[in-house]
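We close this part of the discussion by returning to an individual protein. The encoding preserves chain order, so positions in sequence and tokens coincide. The sequence in question and its structure tokens are set out directly beneath this paragraph:

===
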Amino acid sequence: MRITRPASAMPAVAAALTTLIAAGSLVLGPAAPAGAAAVPSHRCPQGYVCFWTEPNFQGKMTVYQNPVSHSCGKTEAQPARTIFNNDDEAWSFYRDLDCTTLAVTLPPGRFAPDTEAYSWK
């Protein structure tokens, strides 16, 4: 069985799709993977690791420029609840002050939107 639509319906469908695309309401392609949600990366400059005092990039933001040492140090926010690694190497973040209980390791360009970290290396 073949269903056909009147030719007059096609321009209306095309117009509706054009409107949805222009309004940004139509999503084409796969959904963004977890951890790739909208990030205020413009607030975290390239070469920095950025910390927020609240989950989901809320609260006070502090930054650490061009980290080079992988010795244990305190996070800029105590505790860091959101972390964005905009540096060019991976960093590990810990749930304690002596870098023994791992919370998360973030490769370059990745973030943890809801964590609790007190130290990093």
Remarks:
- Residues 41-120 form a domain with the Gamma-B Crystallin; domain 1 fold (CATH 2.60.20.10).
- Residues 19 and 25 are 9 Å apart (CA to CA).
- Confidence is low (pLDDT under 50) at residues 1-7, 16-36.
